[in-house]
Design goal:
The complex is a heterodimer of chains A (263) and B (152).
Chain A: E1 2-9, H1 13-20, E2 26-28, E3 39-46, E4 55-57, E5 61-65, H2 70-75, H3 77-82, H4 86-91, H5 97-100, H6 105-111, H7 117-123, E6 127-131, E7 135-138, H8 139-142, E8 152-158, E9 162-170, E10 177-186, E11 189-195, E12 202-205, H9 217-230, H10 241-259
Parallel strand pairs in A: 1-3, 2-3
Antiparallel strand pairs in A: 4-5, 5-8, 6-7, 6-8, 9-10, 10-11, 11-12
Chain B: E1 2-8, E2 11-17, H1 23-29, E3 48-51, E4 54-57, E5 70-72, H2 78-82, H3 85-90, H4 100-113, H5 119-125, H6 137-151
Parallel strand pairs in B: 1-5
Antiparallel strand pairs in B: 1-2, 3-4, 3-5
Classes of the chains: A alpha+beta (263), B alpha+beta (152).
């Protein structure tokens, strides 16, 4: 159960940052995961009045505010056109529409949840987090950082030309993913983000240039095997590590075949 | 305590509340008993209300965040709901009735956003509404029957 002594809709990021330095205070996003725990919050800090609920698109990037909901990602024409609907694929099975109308990008990315489809998807893209004090940091580096008292302000996604595919395996629709795979080909280089291992997402790059000659059935199988061998997967109540490793190989292969137009 | 102003089913309410009061408790305190407390893990959709015409889970939203917004429950949308709930009942899909208000609220949101959805679009939009007894096919048949009736 969560208790809250004081609730503040802050008027500036500076105010939010100052309040957030108290260890008993907490920034709330969609509050969907937060409410599941036991926490006594002195001051709940709400960023909802800071204009961070918009996706701004320019010629070279998408700038996604921390308070943008997953449903906004799902319905954003520009993001989905750029990724050939991979963004929509990554969030469409996260619980239900009502949940996605509340869950925020900032909450998902900041928390670096192991089960996060959102972190997995954006990690495969040319993405950066804009922290209030910490500045611009590549998402793949941010994912490895310890939690601190900074504030995630926006997620920046560069429009680096590429291709993107997202696939996840769930025991059933709306459940957590058992494994999540986001494949990208950016500037001719392939990389695979795997989340729900069940630990948080990690990137595997095509270090052996298996796909340097392009995607065909043989190279797809080889890279899928490489990804399964090089992505640590572990057991929990949803699946064994061995099963997850098998799924990584299967989904990576399917991602590649789809990306190569061979499916 | 903090003061909030919420327009609930067309009526402006100004009230002093505890900062951790959930929206579900706020609306039920104002006699909106169609809004049910189900899973409390943000999964079942029983507590669905419309905030500024967007379906959200009232069990997971602070009433304080709804300050300054318009909230509607089934009590305020009965006329709109009445156009299709009979079709769902005709399919026996309202068996125990506990999940129905959430289903109906989200169906209202679906039909406003997409007046002529396919079966897959209906399933996708209502995936966050769990039914513990009658299953989902009856509800789908009911909504389909309603949509078909509009075309006749």
């Amino acid at each position: 159960m969560v208790t809250i002594q004081k609730y503040v809709k802050v008027l500036s990021l500076d105010e939010a940052y100052e309040l957030n330095q108290n260890k008993n205070n907490c920034i709330i996003g969609g509050m969907l995961w937060l409410k599941m725990g036991n926490k006594n919050i002195s001051t709940a800090i709400d960023l909802c009045n800071l204009g961070l609920d918009t996706i701004e698109e320019s010629d070279d990037e998408f700038s996604i505010g921390a308070m943008v909901t997953l449903r906004q990602l799902e319905n954003h024409a520009g993001l989905n056109s750029f990724t050939n609907d991979a963004i929509r694929s990554s969030v469409k099975d996260i619980v239900g529409v009502q949940f996605r109308n509340m869950a925020t990008v900032g909450g998902s990315i900041w928390s670096r949840f192991g089960f996060s489809d959102v972190l997995t998807m954006f990690m495969a893209m040319d993405s950066y987090v804009q922290l209030y004090k910490g500045g611009l940091i590549p998402l793949k580096d941010f994912a490895k950082m310890d939690y601190d008292k900074d504030i995630l302000v926006r997620l920046i996604v560069k429009k680096t030309p590429g291709k993107y595919i997202y696939k996840a395996s769930r025991a059933q629709r709306t459940d957590f993913p058992v494994i999540a795979c986001a494949l990208s080909m950016i500037n001719g280089k392939y990389q695979l983000a795997v989340g729900a291992r069940p630990n948080k997402a990690v990137l595997t790059i095509d270090a052996d240039n298996i796909l340097a000659g392009g995607i065909n059935e043989e190279s797809a199988k080889a890279f899928a095997r490489f990804a399964a061998d090089n992505t640590p997967a572990f057991s929990n109540s949803r699946a064994s590590g061995e099963y997850r490793t098998h799924l990584i190989e299967v989904l990576t292969y399917r991602c590649l075949m789809e990306m190569g137009g061979l499916e | 305590m903090i003061e909030i102003k919420i327009k609930l089913n067309g009526k402006m309410i100004t009230e002093q509340i505890d900062p951790d009061l959930l929206l579900i408790d706020f609306v039920r305190n104002h006699n909106c008993y169609s809004v049910k407390r189900g899973c409390e893990t943000s999964n079942c959709g029983l507590c669905t209300v419309l905030m500024d015409d967007t379906p959200v889970l009232s069990c997971s939203m602070l009433a304080a965040r709804a300050d300054g917004h318009e909230v509607k429950t089934l009590e305020g949308l009965q006329e709109e709901a009445s156009s299709f709930v009979g079709f769902i009942a005709d399919q026996g899909a309202d068996q125990c009735g506990f999940c129905n208000p959430g289903f109906v609220m989200n169906t209202i949101a679906l039909l406003r956003e997409n007046p002529d959805p396919t079966d897959d679009e209906i399933r996708a939009f209502l995936a966050g509404n769990l039914c513990r007894c009658s299953g989902y096919e009856g509800q789908l048949r009911g909504i389909r029957a309603y949509l078909d009736s509009r075309k006749q």
